[in-house]
Amino acid sequence: MSEISEKSRLRTENLNLYYGSRHALKDITMEIPSRAITAIIGPSGCGKSSLLRVFNRMNDLIPEARVEGNVYLDKISVYGEETDAVALRKKVGMVFQKPNPFPMSIFDNVVIGPRRHGVKHRDELESIAENCLRRVALWEDVKDNLRQSALNLPLGTQQQLCIARTLAIEPEVILMDESCSALDPESTMRVEELMTELAQSYTIMIVTHSMEQAARVSDMSAFMMIDDEKIGRLVEYGTTEQIFSTPKDKRTEDYITGRYG
Ligand SMILES: Nc1ncnc2c1ncn2[C@@H]1O[C@H](COP(=O)(O)OP(=O)(O)O)[C@@H](O)[C@H]1O
Ligand SMILES: [Mg+2]
What are the pLDDT digits (tens) for 146-169? Predict the structure, then answer.
């Protein structure tokens, strides 16, 4: 086992992922730094979502999915026998493409995680809700409507709420799978600002199909593509500045300059 570098939070070593007989990710070795945004980019179907789901074991929910190799969150072996997937998902929160608030009030949405984990006191729940809604810059907008259904909020606000709900479980890592792709440009900007702000305290990984977004918000970029056997590979990984200004691989260059994808 190689040394875990000080600054890396998540790490994969020779990661392979299979869906039944379909080999979806091949030999992925990468280190993801803490307090930074790492973007996964690449054409549709190259395995971006599959890779993201490896980090909180969401692939466990797909019966035929199988992982080989090592994945670490700090010193915890994510797929280690002693590792509890539910406890792991508390450390590694996820925000999805389509905002998915639960059919309940704004307040209840934010505190559902802490409630499930046994927080009962009203005062404590209220302070968690306020704190998390402030962190996503929603508090002033919703503080007088906390009892209203979250489903009536505009889409962009719903996504901010879903981020607040994720923060309420006090994660260390936040995974975002195309979390802006259902949003209008203004909401997208708001969520991007939020990502940048959250990156000061959390390890953030995003999947995005927008090169502009990756270039705007991320610190590190990972370019993936399928190989000749249609298996997802990590083609190039580096600082966003390097990937976008001096890509080493011709395929990366072709992709970021829009020659395909
Ligand atoms: N639940 C699943 N069962 C079987 N194959 C899957 C499943 N999810 C994804 N795949 C396959 O894995 C490959 C990568 O998919 P995905 O990770 O969704 O790519 P991306 O997010 O880059 O579009 C695709 O060929 C896809 O069909
Ligand atoms: Mg995807």
Answer: 999 999 999 999 999 999 999 999
